[in-house]
Amino acid sequence: MGPPVNLTQADLNLAASITINLGFLARNFYDSKTLDVVSAFAGFYNTTPNATNTEILTFSGARPRDLDILLEMLGRREFLRDSILWLDAVADRLPRMPGSGHILVPVFAVFTVLTTIIIALRLWSRQTIAGGVRAYDWIMVFGYFMTLVYGSSALYHAVNINTASQFWDYSWNEIALQQIFYIALDILYPLTALTIKSSLLLFYYTLSPARYLRWSVWATFGFTFATAATVVLYSIFKCHPVNYWSEWYTSTCDPHQTIPYLVTGSLMILSDVIIWVLPLPMVMKLQLYRRERIAAVFTFSLGIFACIASIFRLKAVHKYFLTSGGTGKTPIINTWTIVELNLAIICASAPALRALCIKHVPKLLSYGSDSTDGSNSNSSGGSMNDRARKNTRSVHGRIIVHHDQIRPSDMASLRSGISRTGSGWSDVEKSVHYSSTSRIGSPV
To answer: 3-class SS at 392?
Structure first.
């Protein structure tokens, strides 16, 4: 079998098949690159062209049943020899490209630093402004650590394992380790996304006692949980046995794996969209000034960026999943996954960050001047004592008081002076107006 002048895609696929099957067979060479195993076998056949099964087993360290299965698939023992000699002859024409793991390093570093800062600011905002960290905040923190685990695992895989783009540049031990990482990451991604979405849904659940909202939250959670569970179960059982790399010749896998991942990926994007638009009808019903309404809608709509990242990830899955001849494009999928998960955390923390901005840099959000509006103070707070007056200011006709500037004894007189007290607001209005700000009665 003479080498072709130019290797076609079919030739490359055949080369990948030979290297990976020979790599699994030759247990004495599990730490050697599979193309080096081909070279060693070529030397063996050059000196022993009519090698018997016993001689092949002794040289390769293969299990007898593995050799029997391989020879049965090939049809004749000579085909094994001829295939190896052909591949050895064209070895210098095979592409030898590095993996694409380098693109993941800066993305992971930047988003890890950014998301860590955002989570820290979120917790600071909740603790100092909202009166404490809530359950949905702790769920988001857990989601942050899961995102960190996913990113760290993907980074290790990209830098230390996925160093090439073709099977013939890996040893069998490296190929087997890659399969383990693939399953682990395929399972970790939907679980992490589910955790982040659960935090958001619990946050929405506490916004208002409205029945339609709470039923919507439960329905969305059920849909999200079912989608994530489907991805996890499929990732585990798409091959039989689960550790299919230990029985490469006899294991069976779904030949159309891309389709289920595309379908479930689309469903996950749908759940993203539902979750991010869920609070918008409530916000639109609030009695807000135009600028406040725009700010509130913008805050709750930031999740669109995470949805966009999900779409790019799905496109990468469609393009690079089960790439013929190698695995070098996997880090591209992992990169978009890291972007998606981190953006989801960042966007979900926007209300808490907005609260910090309102408290510490109100001019940045155009919340009026720091000067006290005497007319508003006099009309709305006639019974307010002098100390409370000094610590109030008018914002769009409303009285703003920082809770850390008021004594408990001032609370009654202050509340009697505010035209619309905290108890008069709905939970949704509190979330938008006070949005975890320094105003009295912050519910979030």
So the answer is: strand
CA R_g for the chain:
31
pLDDT tens figures, 401-415 = 343 443 444 444 444
Q: Where does 321-404 have alpha helices with state H?
A: 330-348, 350-360, 374-380, 386-390
The torsion region of residue 131 among left (phi > 0), alpha (psi -120 to 50) and beta comes to: left
Domain final residue pick, 324, 341, 359: 359
Q: For residue 401, what is the enclosing H or E element?
A: strand 398-401
* Cα distances (angstroms) measured from residue 310 to each of 147, 338, 437: 15, 10, 31
Distance CA 120, CA 113 (A): 11
Q: Are the C-beta atoms of residues 180 and 371 closer than 8 Å to each other?
A: no
Q: Classify 412 in phi/psi space as left (phi over 0), alpha (psi -120 to 50) or beta.
A: alpha
The one-letter amino acid code at 178 reads: Q
Domain co-membership, 204 together with 178: yes
Residue 357, classified by CB atoms within 10 Å of its CB into exposed (0-12), middle (13-18) or buried (19+), is middle
Nearest residue to 437 (alpha-carbon basis) of 388, 404, 396: 404
H or E segment to which residue 83 belongs: helix 77-90
Using DSSP's 3-state secondary structure scheme, residue 166 falls into: coil
Is the distance from CB of 376 to CB of 399 less than 8 angstroms?
yes
Q: Is the separation of the CB atoms in 439 and 404 below 8 Å?
A: no
User: Which residues share a beta bridge with 395?
Assistant: 398
Dihedral angle of Cα 407, 412, 415, 417, to the nearest 10 degrees = -100
Before 241, cis peptide (omega within 30)? yes
In 91-171, alpha helices (H): 104-128, 135-156
Q: What is the pLDDT of residues 272-308, one digit of tens each?
A: 999 988 887 777 766 666 666 676 666 666 778 888 9
Whether residue 442 lies inside any domain: the answer is no
Give the end of a domain, one of 74, 93, 112.
Answer: 93
* Same domain membership, residue 249 and residue 377: no
Same domain flag for 42 and 74: yes
**pTM, rounded to two decimals:** 0.78
For 132, the domain range is 101-359
Report how many domains make up the chain: 3
